[in-house]
Fold each of these.
Amino acid sequence: MTRRFITFEGIDGAGKSTHIEALAERLRQRGGEVVMTREPGGTALAEKLRELVLHAPMDALTEALLVFAARRDHLQQVIAPALARGATVLCDRFTDATFAYQGAGRGFDTGVLGALETWVQQGLQPDLTIWFDLPAETAAERRAAARTPDRFEQLDTAFFNRVRSGYATRFEQSPERFARIDASLPREQVWAQVVDHLERRGW
Ligand SMILES: Nc1ncnc2c1ncn2[C@@H]1O[C@H](COP(=O)(O)OP(=O)(O)OP(=O)(O)O)[C@@H](O)[C@H]1O
Ligand SMILES: Cc1cn([C@H]2C[C@H](O)[C@@H](COP(=O)(O)O)O2)c(=O)[nH]c1=O
């Protein structure tokens, strides 16, 4: 069975969650185990760290260390075992989010983030990263209609413009790994782009 590690990225409110469940269903219909998970989170320990990262005041280094600590536990307990048994793992956010939010958004040293990435992941990278890209203003309008904001969602458009440019930098560094989706379009057209990228890979 083909093991695949697919991650979903984008600024808050980009529309990732809307499509992950549908993609899981599509892949299940083709046979094989599909594991849906998220970061920060995905294990009991990592979900506790998620609560802190999303709600407790802290500086950018603390934030970066906590998301990587959560990631290490998640990789050890969930992602690596699932990939080893041949499952497809769909993960709502991964390390590109750390470069985008803590790196570009908060201004934290990306060299340090790169060192942590190497230590924590030991070379493991997603096979495909679906990046839901849209203007910060559009995402803010969607979030406003949807929910109570957490620590990140309270930040201004300038922060989310930096986060978006952080994703663009990661995209430029590894274009073969990324599928960039125009997430400003209506849901059906966003989904059609997701399917098109999978079909291009024969998935
Ligand atoms: N293409 C779309 N057009 C208009 N609204 C959308 C579209 N896709 C999703 N939405 C709406 O925008 C809001 C945010 O979507 P969603 O929760 O899927 O985003 P997200 O990227 O998972 O956000 P977060 O990462 O912050 O959890 C929801 O209310 C959702 O219904
Ligand atoms: C993995 C990761 C996440 N974040 C931020 C990005 C979001 O604002 C939240 C997660 O919320 P979501 O609704 O589940 O998308 O956490 C981060 O700053 N750094 C990271 O590495």
Amino acid sequence: MQPDLLSPAHTAHVASQLATRSPLIHCLTNQVVQSFTANVLLAVGASPAMVVDHEEALAFSAIADALLINIGTLTREQALAMRAAIDGANRAGKPWTLDPVAVGPLAFRSRFAREILAQKPAAIRGNASEILALAGNGAGGRGVDATQGAQEAVSAARELAQQTGAIVAVTGEVDYVTDGDRTLTITGGDPLMTRVVGTGCALSAVVAAACALPGSRLENVAAACGVFALAGKRAAAQSQGPGSFPSLFLDALYQLHTEGA
Ligand SMILES: Nc1ncnc2c1ncn2[C@@H]1O[C@H](COP(=O)(O)OP(=O)(O)O)[C@@H](O)[C@H]1O
Ligand SMILES: Cc1ncsc1CCOP(=O)(O)O
Ligand SMILES: [Mg+2]
């Protein structure tokens, strides 16, 4: 089936809903991107909380509106907290999102990612090499970076969505978001987004937030990618390089709901 283009009106609607509803997002994420992820969630109008101890994580994921699990700097201790958080979220009926950072060549995180897939993520967001590896079709990328284009991972994304029941977003120059049947395509963004750390991780946090909104989860996750594509393009148009880009990107995310898309 041919991918559909995401409607700009739905991106604007989701940008506004995120700010109006301000979902509380429980983030268990990597050590590199904690602060940027929290700032991105605040810029879109959501509310971040990094509650990381395993006892507190179990309790807090039931209180939060959605959970993010990002395995970028996974440790044994963090894996315990992640299992507890997923358990708490599932028992409370709260959606959780997986960012399978650098899955493939590294055994511990790859085993862990496959294990938690059985716990029914609402969404999975990764780059092409991560989605291919998670679907069992590739060896993974170069560390946290993709070595394949997103277009090459569309079939794997569909298979992964069918196997897990999750909405799968595979990102890159073009993003593809699928429920295993219908696939939406998002264009925009800018290569500068790959020259600063944490844009993929922060997008996964906004995907988690989008999963807490009412309506079509497929369209809401695609709109989260649409929000990034639009803000990334606007920020890059004013930016001289990776130093100024993160600030301009946060401003652009904020302006999407304060000034309308
Ligand atoms: N070449 C590109 N052109 C435009 N946008 C891009 C490009 N590469 C990545 N992006 C955007 O950057 C964000 C992060 O995606 P990606 O780089 O695939 O994730 P990761 O950082 O996990 O590898 C997404 O919003 C994606 O659309
Ligand atoms: C550099 C790095 N190392 C482990 S996690 C991480 C951040 C990856 O961020 P992103 O996937 O958003 O580029
Ligand atoms: Mg990533």
